[in-house]
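During the second half of the funding period, the structural biology subgroup turned its attention to how the target accommodates small molecules. The most pressing case was uridine-diphosphate-N-acetylglucosamine, which had performed well in the primary screen but for which no bound structure existed. We therefore specified the complex as follows and requested a full 3D prediction, including the ligand pose.
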Amino acid sequence: MTYQLLSVVGTRPNFVKLAPLDRVFEASGKIDHRIVHTGQHYAPALSGDFLKSLGLKKSLRNLEVGSGPHGAQTGWIMEALEEECSRERPDLMLVVGDVNSTLAGALVAAKLHIPVAHVESGLRSKDRKMPEEINRLVTDRLSDILFVSEPSGVEHLRAEGVDPEAIHLVGNVMIDSLLHCLPAARERDVMSRLGVSRGAYGVVTLHRPSNVDEPERLVRLTRSLESLGHSLPLLYPVHPRTRVRLEECGIEVDSKSGLRLIDPLDYLDFLSLLEGAKLVLTDSGGIQEETTFLGIPCLTLRPNTERPITLEVGTNRLVRIEELESCFQRVLADEWNKGSVPELWDGKTAERILVQLEIFLGSRC
Ligand code: UD1
């Protein structure tokens, strides 16, 4: 028996999570897997080119919704997706992560009585000012089978009253992608192209509204990074959202500092750069996990994280702007926690998800 499975993705981190699942679904011969790309991310660097570097070759149906305020964007995705799902009537809708496309997918499927599987379920920052936290709460509420990457996720879902039978601690699909792509990433010459050598540079990524939307904070952060750049060159691939904010605020980076703004990189180049870095400064969720896996010190510019395992066993630490300099110097002095790899982050998460999905679908069809 072949099951019809429809996955919804829309943003750069979604693609990283879906690629290993698509590979195991195809290899199983039991899942007819179709993928809808909402078009939430549309810049080639975040979408087409990025997908290519991940090895996700399948042609995706693109709904081309583009950017907009949260309500409007979610609504546009729902409208287009409802039409798609009513026509296709899949046996299951699969959503990943916590972006607006994830929420829209879960809402549409639930209203059409199509069961929902959520990958990367249960994570909570407990901060409802983050749009992603709202997306996580609602998506999990609507999901019928929930795949969790770390133990905190299981605790949250149980505390929220989710049926324990529906919760599966399976590990982290992002690490499946990382392990699959690492050999190809190591062939990339991005370090020499950018004029840096292994262990002698840092990587910066910032795109969260809480860091980049308020001009005063963005100026302060940029000046702090310029100052750190004098001790260690910092490469900063700039997310389009951040680029727009920097331009709106008229912020220019001092070219004499070691802080270098570059265009967003594809997955293999970014992975290669990450693996060779002395340290990473970020507000991304996924990068906290990737650095923990790679054992690279990670300074997360946020007051909270929905991924506490990266603090408990990994190399991650939450830092305030005032603490940046001292943490930075501790890393340079090699006084940072070496960390270890969380349980089940072993490159086999997609396989474990497939096993559970087959049981779930078998019991319903
Ligand atoms: C989205 C996710 C965030 C995730 C991030 C990863 C939500 C609520 N946010 O944030 O959780 O960490 O993706 O990258 O879903 N833009 C472009 N080109 C693009 C896409 C966006 O220029 O291809 C610019 C536009 O100015 C747009 C802004 O970025 O208004 C924000 O894009 P949006 O998709 O709403 O959120 P992200 O900040 O990318």
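Two results from this model are relevant to the next phase. Residues 58 and 355 are 22 Å apart (CA to CA). The two ends are 10 Å apart (CA to CA).
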